TrEMBL record:
It comes from Amphiprion ocellaris (Clown anemonefish). This is Mediator of RNA polymerase II transcription subunit 16. One of its GO terms (cellular component) is nucleoplasm. The lineage of its organism: Eukaryota, Metazoa, Chordata, Craniata, Vertebrata. The keyword Nucleus applies. Residues 111-399 form the Mediator complex subunit Med16 N-terminal domain. Its main location: nucleus. The gene is MED16.
């Protein structure tokens, strides 16, 4: 199927939704979905709470509801580019900015607000930060991420000193007012309002887009299809510490259906007005409707030559003179008569629409970012091509009166069931592979959207499409939950291998930036299949290993300030890579031990991390003889020269610190008191590392090494490693549970040392796996 259910959710069955009030929905790049409902108390019809609900799609059964405090119906919800702040606006002109408290996804607070008292907000947007990528389908086979996802020259809406984008938001009111709120570096707001034009009129619908030059374009209509759709350029600036707004009228358009003699009065109302993308102010989508049907038109702004009067055509042309031009709206395409449209969703994936890219997308059946979604009053959804408006896919809701092929009883069931359930708000995910919709009863639905819109593809082509989108998420930092919805267990191994191959083809600088992100993506992929569950354990362990190594190395300080370019951590890596000696003390002699000098309290506070490193090395070595298959956790490290080298470096650091503070050393339960446990582990680890170094062909461990590892359990008590934290088990139909690995931490840590504070700073915003933190209720703790 082109679209299929993932889950659905209903809030507070004792309360009822007010059917006459519109619903809004917004989906962030971190795969948080926010939507509003208006709940009235059964005992008092006048008592209506304007609620905002936020769900993390990785945990759709956990819903975080906020009583917004808005006095009128919520008309707009808008996430910022980072996905961590949310704007809400209402019918009384109030705008609130919500942000996570302590970076917890289930704890939100309103930190800033602005208002245009009594003037309902009809459109709302954050100012543009100047970051724009283009995704090139034509280059999907390239080995360079920079060619697949190119940075487009785009100016922020407003810049601070030094070119840093200034944060803020812009809103349009029903009376034709544009209001801007700028967030100053100190945290205060700078607010100003201005009329869109001199002759202010009613604005029933509006939308906001941005130009590459830093300007803002507002499209507005009074709701009548016989009236022009007006466009305005808005320029925001700061002059003498005050916000200034300048507006300019741009070319307008009349709907094509109003000039068609057959449809002139058929669709009296404009019900939807949307720019095709927020960074393209030159293409707009319009929907006109009546009580039973709708029609959709797509328009484009083009530069055309201005015809010259015949009098001037016979004169001699001046050198360098160009024909005068004018901007004019031209209709691209229009649909036939449709069922009445109830909601529209536009794609967020910034796919390039050059002729070459569109041809490659068509040839390979790559559809994400090319389709827009229309929801209808009969409960169905259609995906239309964003340029041609041709149907790409159809979804029939459970109460849809649209007859499925071969299903003659649908209409009979619909008549018996009463009014059709239909979507009042609809939003695409950031890769366009999922849809979130809120129906007319305040119920949230999640749908999966096929990357090929149901067209049959070869497995290699399907893998290439999913790989392309995973790479996009990896480069942008966006959450990849919606991509995982389409990964079958049989695809996991190939996707992980191909993702690693593409990563290794990038330059060293980019590899360093993406080092932890690719491991997190691999871990979430491997959790989708029982055959690769052990590899998921290895990837989670590698994330922790990378974090511990970076933390321990960051504590090293050069002995003198005027040091060479290399840091102590880099010199440690270089020396350990060159020195293949199995004696830890001989490796240690080559290091400047004064760079490793730390006070006692920091070392002692790090003992838990040092203990994990020691236990991990012991576990790997003790299980080396059992690694006959990939099923066992730890297999992935046996051939991972980089990770084994990292462990070797940390053992050297720990050895040096143990001379300064013996209490920080890892403790082992040994059968002999005279045995040097660190020396033993380092010797065996070095032998294993030599078999898998990056600068030579991989080798199988020799028999003597395996024999020594077989003896380890009789010399040291091997700890049981908790490879995967306990997961919140989702119901089978809810899809993959990525990024939510179940790790638990304390919100307020008792640790006071700088070393541990530095460790905990790494996890303030995100969990080890990249997922979001949420507060656990006291009853569960």
């Amino acid at each position: 199927m082109e679209l299929a259910y993932v889950c659905e959710w209903e809030k507070r069955p004792k309360s009822t939704h007010c059917p006459s009030i519109p619903l809004v929905c917004s989906w962030s790049c971190r795969n948080l979905v926010a939507f509003s409902t208006d709940l009235k108390n059964d005992d008092d019809d006048k008592d209506v709470s304007h609620m905002i609900h936020i769900i993390d799609t990785e945990h759709p059964w956990d819903v975080y509801s906020i009583n917004s405090g808005h006095t009128e119906v919520i008309s707009c919800l808008e996430w910022d580019q980072s996905g961590s702040r949310l704007l809400s606006a209402d019918g009384d002109g109030q705008i609130k900015c919500w942000s996570m408290s302590d970076h917890l996804v289930n704890s939100w607070e309103s930190v800033l607000s602005s208002s245009v008292d009594g003037d309902p907000i009809v459109a709302l947007s954050w100012l543009h930060n100047g970051v724009k990528l283009a995704l090139h389908v034509e280059m999907s086979g390239s080995t360079n991420f920079g060619e697949k996802f190119s940075r487009v020259k785009f100016s922020p809406s407003l810049t601070l000193f030094g070119g840093k984008p200034m944060e803020g938001w812009l809103a349009v009111t029903v009376s034709g007012l544009v209001t801007v709120s700028l967030l100053k570096p100190g945290g205060t707001l700078l607010t100003a309002s201005e009329s869109l034009c001199r002759l202010r009129g009613r604005v029933a619908l509006a939308d906001i887009a941005f130009t590459g030059g830093g300007n803002i374009v507002v499209a507005a209509t009074d709701g009548s299809s016989s009236s022009p759709v007006q466009f305005y350029k808005v320029v925001v600036s700061v002059v003498s510490e005050k916000c200034r707004i300048d507006t300019e009228l741009l070319p307008s358009l009349f709907l094509r259906c109003t000039t068609d003699p057959l449809r002139r009065e058929k669709y009296p109302a404009v019900t939807h007005l949307k720019f095709l993308t927020r960074e393209n102010s030159e293409q707009v989508l319009l929907c006109a409707s009546n009580q039973s049907g709708s029609i959709v038109e797509c328009w484009s702004l083009r530069k055309e030559g201005l015809p010259v009067n015949n009098i001037f055509q016979h004169r001699s042309p001046v050198v360098g003179e160009k024909q005068p031009t004018i901007l004019k709206w031209r209709i691209l395409t229009t649909t036939n008569d449709l069922e009445r449209v109830s909601a529209v969703a536009l794609p967020k994936l910034p796919i390039s629409i050059s002729n070459t890219d569109l041809k490659v997308a068509s040839d390979t059946k790559f559809c994400p970012g090319l389709g827009l979604a229309l929801a209808f009053h009969d409960g169905s959804i259609q995906i239309l091509h964003r340029l041609s408006l041709h149907t790409m896919g159809v979804f029939y809701g459970s109460s849809s009166s649209a007859q499925r092929p071969g299903d003659e009883s649908t209409i009979k069931r619909q008549r018996a069931a009463g009014p059709a359930l239909h979507f009042k708000a609809l939003q695409f995910s950031w890769t366009s592979l999922a849809l979130a919709g809120v129906d007319n009863h305040g119920k949230l639905h999640m749908l999966r959207v096929s990357p090929s819109m149901g067209q049959v593809l070869e497995m290699n082509t399907t893998l290439r499409h999913l790989l392309f989108l995973l790479e996009y998420c990896m480069v942008t930092g966006y959450d990849w939950w919606d991509v995982l919805l389409h990964v079958q267990p049989s695809m996991v191994h190939n996707l992980v291998e191909k993702l690693h191959e593409e990563y290794m083809r990038q330059n060293q600088a980019l590899q360093q930036v993406l080092a932890t992100r690719i491991v997190a993506v691999k871990a979430s992929l491997c959790k989708l299949s029982t055959a690769t569950a052990a590899r998921a354990c290895d990837f989670h362990a590698k994330l922790l290993l990378i974090a511990i190594s970076a933390t321990l190395k960051s504590l090293l300080r050069p002995h003198v300030l005027n040091t060479p370019d290399k840091s102590p951590g880099d010199r440690l890596t270089e020396i350990c890579a060159k020195n293949t000696d199995t004696d830890i003390d001989k490796v240690m002699i080559n290091l400047k031990t004064e760079e490793f000098v730390l006070d006692g309290p920091p070392l002692q506070s790090l003992q838990q991390l040092i203990q994990w490193v020691g236990d991990f090395v012991l576990y790997l070595l003790a299980n080396l003889p059992n690694q006959g298959s990939m099923v066992r956790p730890g297999f992935g490290f046996m051939r991972d020269g980089a990770s084994l080298g990292m462990l070797r470096e940390m053992l050297v650091m720990i050895r040096i610190w143990g001379l300064l503070k013996p209490g920080c050393l890892p403790t082992f339960t040994a059968t002999s008191d005279s045995q040097d446990n660190m020396q033993l582990l380092f010797r065996l680890l070095t032998k294993l590392w030599l078999c898998s170094r990056d600068d030579g062909p991989p080798q199988d461990p020799d028999e003597s090494l395996i024999d020594e590892c077989c003896l380890l359990p009789s010399q040291l008590l091997v700890p049981s490693m908790d490879w995967l934290p306990v997961n919140d088990e989702p119901e089978p139909e809810l899809g993959p549970d990525s990024g939510a690995c179940g790790c638990v931490t304390m919100l307020r840590s008792p640790n006071k040392t700088n070393a541990m504070k530095q460790w905990e700073q790494r996890w303030i915003k995100n969990c080890l796996c990249g997922g979001l933190w949420r507060r656990i209720p006291p009853t569960l703790t």
